[in-house]
Automatic annotation (TrEMBL):
The keyword Transit peptide does not apply. The lineage of its organism: Bacteria, Pseudomonadati, Pseudomonadota, Gammaproteobacteria, Alteromonadales. PROSITE patterns: GGDEF, HPT, RESPONSE_REGULATORY. Pfam families: GGDEF, Hpt, Response_reg. It comes from Shewanella vaxholmensis. This is diguanylate cyclase. GO terms for molecular function: diguanylate cyclase activity. It comes from the Bacteria. The modification Phosphohistidine is found at residue 49. Residues 411-543 form the GGDEF domain.
Amino acid sequence: MSFEDSLEQLKRQFLHALPDKKKQIITLWISLRKNWNTHMLSAVYREVHNLKGSSETFGLSDTKHIVDKLELQLKGLLNAPAPELPTIKGLDTLFHQLLQNNMRGQPSPPVVEAQMQQSPYKPAKARHDHHIAIIEDDGNVGAMITKQLREFGFSVQHFLNFTSFLVVQNETPFDLILLDLILPDWTEEALFEAATEFEKNNTRVFVLSSRGDFDMRLLAIRANVSEYFVKPAETTLLVRKIHQSLKMSEKQPLKVLLVDDQQSMVDYFSSLLRSHGLMVKGLSSAEQVLPALEQFEPDLFIFDLYMPEVNGLELAKMIRQLDKYTSSPILVLSSDDTMQNKVSIIQAGSDDLISKQTAPSLFVAQVISRAQRGHDIRSSASRDSLTGLLNHTQILVAARRCYNVARRINSQVCIAMFDLDHFKKVNDTYGHAGGDKVLLAFAHLLQQSLRQTDFTGRYGGEEFMLVLPDMQKPLAIAKLNAIRESFSHIVFVEDGVEFKVTLSGGLVFSDECEEFQDCLLLADKHLYEAKRLGRNQLVFSPSEQD
């Protein structure tokens, strides 16, 4: 269902519930008239304010016109003594108009700009969905690069000429092209012109050339190609550039936790943000937030300002007391975007106030911008600076959480410890630059080979932890063995010298341990056994049927 269809459905649901909502407000007003007190007045004001926000969002101009007047008058009474009879009668008239308003004809729709169809945020493709073309007329060179990239888990296709590549490209476009500049069927000038067009259409082009002189590089720059490599291209550097260019390190879409006591607003803003590729958890009660954070780690919080029991400012202050979210962006939604409210929400630790009548595309743009900043903050605090994988603390947090979930719902999670064999010798022989190259290559291989739901972290030094939730034992063993095998075939080059590195691993499954700590000890024991047995292998507990 498209966003426009979802919006229309939400609007119909809101209109169906609107008469009852108006009657509820009138009932509160009647109770307030009989026994005037600040608590009941606040409740009436809050309901009117919420109706104003809903009317703005769904484009109910007639209702909004009446509610605007009601909100203004009620707001003036919040910190004042009980009003005189003329004021009460004036409010009676407005409430009567609200109840009698039949909203003739169709409500005017909220502003949905044409740009809505072109999302300003596009989540990264799943890693296995990226397709790479190698256009190289030297069959041996093309085959070697193809083999090496496939070891990293890329989908790669080799072409001996540009014409045959175009036939496939026109049917199923590639995401990235590795282009040799000396081909039998196209001139260099024509290839650069083609590269320019590919880049304009968001297909990345990497040049692979035997020439590295200034003139050739300048032509490549003017053609806007993404990268330039002089043959022979180093595989690990090529892989790193591919990951950077295709933004493959982004494993998950940006995540937003939204809280609004009106379910219609939760549904509307959730639908709007999801239509632009964001992951949204929408809640209608502030009390649901802390339990939700056990499973959902948002990049951004959005809270409604006026909610019963717990308002948006109190909720923002509570989030700021959680160490994990002291720097996470918080936006507050309100129909009242006065300067006084803006100052109040900033003093409460929030970042900004957004009006509920903000145009959808502008609202989405602000949310994405703030959520991306939140994601970057979380990422820098939780990632290993060299490999980009989770750091020691965070991979342990992820592993423990997955273990607890697996035990609770009776599913399976695999926890694996990997260690690079003879890594000290690699550092001693090729220096720390050579060692870092190996660590990066393994990190890229893991990012490319595993699912988006899996977790990978640098446990320490040359040791890595992998967490594979909801994966049965035979499949997990096969997957991890394939990673080990692929890594053993990767050729590293340092100062003109080629070398390879192997891996040892210890695997454990959640149903083998009564406690999480037992799993860590058993995985480490299996890793030590793999080393003792000669390295370059996996060790795990045999199944009962083995």
